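Q: I'm building a small set of examples for a reading group on sequence design. Run inverse folding on the following structure and report the sequence directly after it, with nothing in between.
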């Protein structure tokens, strides 16, 4: 049902998803008051540059603002987080005591960096996480001071990018992770091994199959990291890159189906209550939304991808404006990361893959597309400096094609399809 002109909408979250949802609502004809709540004091900004160009000093933190459509008539409430949701009164309560009434509500609170498990060590000077603008500014200042060594804890995309930035700045960097290669949990050891080789060639000290047990300070500042095997790494800066936590704590007691893994939605995008019933006045979008993806047999997924946040926000914005989409949200997940001068891009979800194949290009030349299979079906693909072949792989994934596919197209310099690494984590 289309909302009336007097209905009020609130978007909780002030990132990419919030901005694109607000634009979609206005474009779909929502003309009522529209408030946006954000715990940071900034209007929506782009996060990918934070772990790259902002850390190198090429881009100031305040130059990352996202472009938006003019004339949206938004009521901004920035620098104050949402504290709780009262669905009976239809109010969002803020941490400063104010309450914002709503008729339509979008939950787009995203994620925060997972902290170091020891709070005392995590707060000591020299220990950083990287998620927001202020995080990037603080870490940039620490790197510009020329620490004798930086230890990066966690070899996911952010950890790898930070380690590489340190080397580009001429700083010694050690990357520690319990996995066998960088990105092993996401990409498997075959593709992760290529990323590891690139990092090693850049001079990153790689410590895999290792874990940091505790961080030591002297005079109140970080001086070294202690590994579980007794090894010590002298370092003045530690970057904790252990993934993200979804911002759902403010929904405790709301009666919605939400936990640290995300907010549950139905196929249309409406948020579910604790009994599994959709609330037609509330939707969710972006990193915090956990929804059934039709491409993966309705399995609930929560995605932390830039393109997904944008696409799902447009879908949710139209939904809340009363312009019901023709079909459930089903955009294929996509992701990209710059690892030095090498572009890594993906389509689909590698979760649960039991085999990987080099479908195009050459692994040894580090220009290839890896195709992932599960139970005999194509489910994802990752390209390393070879993105032109990704659309063909996306078609295989969308068609639920058998893995490995018969007659897969091969570049003239490529070898035949070859199963390389069964049993991905």
């Amino acid at each position: 049902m289309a909302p009336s002109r007097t209905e009020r909408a609130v978007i909780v979250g002030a990132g990419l998803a919030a901005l694109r949802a607000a634009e979609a609502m206005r474009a779909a004809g929502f003309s009522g008051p529209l408030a946006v709540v954000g715990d940071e004091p900034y209007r929506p900004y782009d996060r990918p540059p934070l772990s790259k160009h902002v850390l190198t000093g090429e881009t100031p933190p305040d130059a990352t603002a996202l472009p938006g459509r003019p004339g949206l008539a938004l009521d901004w409430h920035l620098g104050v987080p949402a504290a709780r949701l009262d669905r009976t009164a239809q109010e969002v309560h803020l941490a400063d005591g104010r309450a914002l009434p709503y008729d339509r509500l979008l939950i787009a609170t995203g994620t925060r960096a997972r902290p170091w498990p020891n709070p005392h060590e995590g707060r000591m000077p020299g220990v950083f996480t990287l998620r927001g603008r202020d995080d990037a500014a603080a870490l940039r200042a620490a790197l510009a001071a020329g620490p004798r060594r930086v230890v990066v804890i966690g070899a996911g995309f952010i950890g790898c990018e930070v380690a590489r930035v340190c080397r580009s700045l001429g700083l010694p960097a050690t990357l520690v992770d319990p996995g066998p290669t960088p990105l092993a949990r996401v990409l498997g050891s075959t593709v992760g091994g290529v990323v590891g080789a690139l990092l090693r060639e850049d001079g990153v000290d790689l410590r895999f199959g290792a874990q940091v047990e505790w961080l030591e300070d002297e005079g109140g500042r970080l001086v070294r990291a202690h590994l579980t095997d007794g090894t010590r790494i002298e370092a003045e800066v530690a970057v904790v890159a252990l993934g993200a936590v979804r911002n759902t704590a403010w929904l405790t007691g709301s009666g919605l189906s939400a936990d640290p893994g995300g907010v549950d939605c139905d196929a249309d995008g409406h948020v579910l209550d604790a009994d599994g019933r959709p609330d037609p006045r509330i939707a969710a979008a972006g990193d915090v939304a956990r929804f059934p993806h039709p491409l993966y047999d309705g399995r609930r997924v929560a995605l932390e991808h830039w393109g997904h946040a944008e696409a799902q926000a447009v879908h949710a914005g139209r939904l809340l404006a009363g312009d019901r989409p023709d079909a459930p949200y089903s955009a294929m997940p996509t992701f990209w990361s710059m690892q030095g001068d090498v572009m890594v891009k993906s389509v689909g979800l590698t979760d649960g893959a039991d085999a990987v194949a080099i479908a195009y290009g050459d692994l040894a030349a580090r220009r290839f597309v890896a195709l992932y299979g599960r139970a005999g079906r194509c489910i994802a693909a990752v390209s390393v400096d070879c993105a032109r072949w990704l659309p063909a792989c996306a078609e295989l994934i969308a068609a639920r094609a058998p893995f490995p596919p018969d007659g897969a197209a091969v570049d003239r310099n490529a070898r035949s399809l070859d199963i390389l690494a069964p049993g991905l984590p």
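Helices lie at 16-27, 53-56, 119-123, 133-144, 157-168, 184-201, 306-320, 390-398.
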